[in-house]
Every structure is written in C-alpha cells, then in structure tokens.
Amino acid sequence: MDQINKLQVEAIEQGTIIDHIPIKIGVKLLSLFNLNIINQRITICLNLPSSLIGCKDLIKMENTFLDQEQINQLAIYAPNSTIKQIKKYKVVSKITPSLPDFIKDVIICPNNNCISRSELIFSSFIIEKNKNNQQLKCIYCEREFTNHIMLIK
Ligand SMILES: [Zn+2]
C-alpha cells in the first residue's frame, strides 16, 4: 500500500473500506448499495495503483457497515475485494466476500425476452460455482450467464 492509500485508510474513524475493487466497478457499487443516498461521508477512489491487481477502485464509507447480504452481492462484482471494518481508526476485521447460492433483485437478466425484464417481478438467479468461474442461472428463462455480462439494476 503506498503512502497516499495509507493516509486515506487512516483518516476514517469508524466505518468500512472496500479495497481491491476491479476498476469501473466502484461506481456501480455505489448505486448497488445505495451509497449515493445515505447521509454519510463516502469517498470513492478510482484507478488507484495496486500491486495486486494493477489498478483498482476503493470505497471508504464512514459510519456504515455492510450486512451479510451486501457482502455476498459484492462477491459477484468484486470477488477478490477486501472489506475492512474500521473502529477507532483501527482495522477490526478483514473479510473476503464469498459467493451466495442465490441472488435476488440485484441484477438484470441479459436475455431481452426474459419475463423478468417485462413484468414487475424480482429477478432471481441461482449461482453455480465452478473451479475458476461462476455462472448465474436465471430462474425464469433458465439461461446461464457469466458474471462479466451481468447488469446491475
Ligand atoms: Zn432470465
């Protein structure tokens, strides 16, 4: 971690830092978690240098903690991210998200003809984990997709 990143981490008294987010995903996470509407100080850093993944996004949220469902959702978009919980300027826990088996109402089915695109129903996907990749299967049209083409609502 370079000096600038270090200072950003230390500047937070209480809250959460999501680190090692793939680039271009940081902004999507803001809307996924409704971070743009909560009444807290949110800092987002885009295209930070990373020794681990080359370039990364980072989100710092004051007085805000992710629940288990949000952590699971994070696994879909940023499977190698790190979630650090900060209390009194110290990292009290460090979590790597793991994939849920099922995800609801977070992503849009890429199939334009899918009933979940036209009706007022929640999209739902079963997540099938293989060794190196993950497939998301829509429970309505039963098509399978990789996470790379999924759209966040
Ligand atoms: Zn579908």
How far apart are the first and last residues' alpha carbons, in Å? Answer: 32 Å
Q: In which range does the helix fraction lie? A: 10-25%
Low-confidence stretches: none
**Which CATH architecture of the largest domain would you pick?**
2-Layer Sandwich
What's the overall average pLDDT, rounded?
84
Quote the beta fraction: 35-45%
Question: Key terms for this structure?
Answer:
Alpha-Beta Plaits; alpha+beta; 153 residues; SH3 type barrels; 5-stranded antiparallel beta sheet; single chain; binds zinc ion
Give a short overview.
This protein has 153 residues and is α+β, with helices and mostly antiparallel strands. The protein has four helices and eleven strands, in the order αβαββαββββαββββ. The site of zinc ion (ZN) has 8 residues, from loops.
Structural description of this entry:
With 153 residues, the chain is an alpha+beta fold. The protein has two domains: 93 residues, Aspartate carbamoyltransferase regulatory subunit, N-terminal domain (Alpha-Beta Plaits), CATH 3.30.70; 51 residues, Aspartate carbamoyltransferase regulatory subunit, C-terminal domain (SH3 type barrels), CATH 2.30.30. It has four helices and eleven strands; from the N terminus they run αβαββαββββαββββ. It has a five-stranded antiparallel sheet, with helices on one face. The model has no long low-confidence stretch (mean pLDDT 84). Zinc ion binds next to loops.
Task: Detail the topology: elements first, then pairings.
Elements: H1 3-10, E1 14-22, H2 26-32, E2 42-50, E3 54-62, H3 68-77, E4 82-87, E5 90-95, E6 102-104, E7 107-108, H4 115-118, E8 124-129, E9 134-138, E10 144-146, E11 151-152
Antiparallel strand pairs: 1-3, 1-4, 2-3, 4-5, 6-8, 7-11, 8-9, 9-10
Bound molecules: zinc ion.
